[in-house]
Amino acid sequence: MLNGFYKRLLPSPPAIDFVSNNGKKLFLEAYQNGTMQGFNSLISHFQTQTELTYCGLASLTMVLNSLAIDPGRKWKGPWRWFDESMLDYCGPLETVRANGISFEKLASLGHCAGAKVEAFRASNITIDDFRKYVTKCSTTDDCHIIASYHRAALKQTAGGHYSPIGGYHAGKDMVLILDVARFKYPPHWVPLSLIWEGMNYTVGSTGKTRGFLLVSRPHKEPNMLK
Amino acid sequence: MLNGFYKRLLPSPPAIDFVSNNGKKLFLEAYQNGTMQGFNSLISHFQTQTELTYCGLASLTMVLNSLAIDPGRKWKGPWRWFDESMLDYCGPLETVRANGISFEKLASLGHCAGAKVEAFRASNITIDDFRKYVTKCSTTDDCHIIASYHRAALKQTAGGHYSPIGGYHAGKDMVLILDVARFKYPPHWVPLSLIWEGMNYTVGSTGKTRGFLLVSRPHKEPNMLK
Question: Coiled coil where (chains A, B) (predicted)?
């Protein structure tokens, strides 16, 4: 017997594997209906979290690269490009490697990296508000959503997790989770109400609920535009 | 002025940016026509080459993970998953880091990692054969193609490069290149005839043409199936 795990079986229902026939059908319907407008930019930057505690950093890196935010410093050779290892704006990454990252700190990191970040705790808004933001970001290239949720709501193993939302199927009211733990679960469709339920789990250390980050390019004055 | 480059302008024509309106239109048409069947599995594993010389390793890693080939050893924690750094089946990766990787060696690596790999030099087949294989792999999840080409054919800067083909638009006879140098160019559609032209450039050190690798899961005898 080999040691370790080769992926985990995606609990389905409630999730629908993006690579399955049903997942492809949902994808095509949503694409035709115009609620996958942000998909192309986000999927072009899909990545695996490089450390088991880097789900937040990987999600943010995907979104920053998707929004074409210039990090202003080099990654490799002459190229400026966001990599998780470069998200040290708020201090060294050792604590993230040890413990993961808090909701507030991830929002700060996005802001310091040059994005506009609006943070929403599930306790402070309604599911209708959440659906409104999902609809907004799925119908443009202008913003992306990083969900902070507890996997138990999706019957998945392990606890708190971050991943971007890659699109929306309005007819079925389902979102496409681009899970950065790709070694574990493939991208999957889940009912919007369930990811919302996952956002409503409280974080033990703070007593606050999870939620989501709405990330976009910062507004520039006309004279700042090139 | 910042040092370095923030991406390169995609020469268009001949390429069409996947994230542009025209790129999305081509994508939807191809998807509806059933020649993006391999897209979902491949895009679910899209990644950036982690070294400037790792285009071959990144392309192979994408394809191995897409085909759900179990590496039989752990990546991080308990998880078995292909990472470029694990493609050392044919020896240490120092020479790849220094010089990139040859067509034969990349094929060997794929084979040693557990895949079935068929290598085609452009000089040995016809464009019609190439189109046949592209059609085959774009209409199933069973195989993926890694193109080995010279960027000059696409009016792109720098020389030889590897990247997987993510799909096919039969009506326009265009392929979707999932460029692993994502810090440089986004995924892009190009005429199949031009990537074929890029495969026909000779490699200086060998005098042989480039070509493509057709990668699939190895055939298993019925009694080997679980």
Answer: none
Whether residue A222 is predicted with pLDDT greater than 90 in this model: the reply is: no
Closest residue of chain B to A184, computed from CA coordinates: B79
Cα separation of B215 and B64, whole Å? 8
Rounded Cα distance between B53 and B79, Å, is 26
Sort out which chain A residues have CB atoms less than 8 A from B51's CB and list them: 76
Q: Which of B58, B52, B47 is nearest to B97 (CA)?
A: B52
Residue B112 inside a domain? The answer is: yes
Please tell me the distance from the alpha carbon of residue A117 to that of residue A44, in angstroms, as a whole number. 21
Chain A CB within 8 Å of residue B77 CB: yes
Q: Is A188 a catalytic residue?
A: no
pLDDT 10s digits, A63-104:
999 999 999 999 999 999 999 999 998 889 999 999 999 999
Q: What is the DSSP letter of B190?
A: E
Q: Give the pLDDT of residue B148.
A: 98
H helices within B47-87, ranges in order? 55-66
Alpha-carbon distance values, B43 to A182, B38, B72 (Å): 11, 9, 23
Q: How many domains does chain B have?
A: 1
Task: Identify whether A111 is a catalytic site residue.
Answer: no
Asked if pLDDT for residue B5 goes beyond 80, the answer is yes
Q: Which of B47, B48, B72 sits opposite A2 (nearest CB)?
A: B72
- Residue pair A9/A155 in contact by the 8 Å Cβ criterion: no
Domain of B60, CATH number, reads: 3.90.70.30
pLDDT at A226 over 50: no
Mean pLDDT of chain B: 95
What's the rounded mean pLDDT across residues A119-146?
98
| Cα B103 to Cα B121: distance, rounded to the nearest angstrom | 9
Residue B80 scores a pLDDT above 50: yes
Distances (CA, A) of A40 to A65, A135, A153, B34: 12, 16, 27, 18
Assess if residue A174 is contained within a domain. Answer: yes
CB atoms < 10 A from the CB of B207, how many? 7
Domain assignment present for A32:
yes
The domain of B109 spans: 16-218
Interface check A142 vs B, CB under 8 A? no
Distances (CA, A) of A82 to A26, A72, B6, B7, B84: 31, 9, 10, 12, 19
Number of Cβ atoms within 10 Å of the Cβ of B59: 31
Interface touch B4/A80, C-beta < 8 Å = yes
Q: How many CA atoms lie within 13 A of A113 on its CB side?
A: 33
Instruction: Please indicate whether residue B55 is annotated as part of the active site.
Output: yes
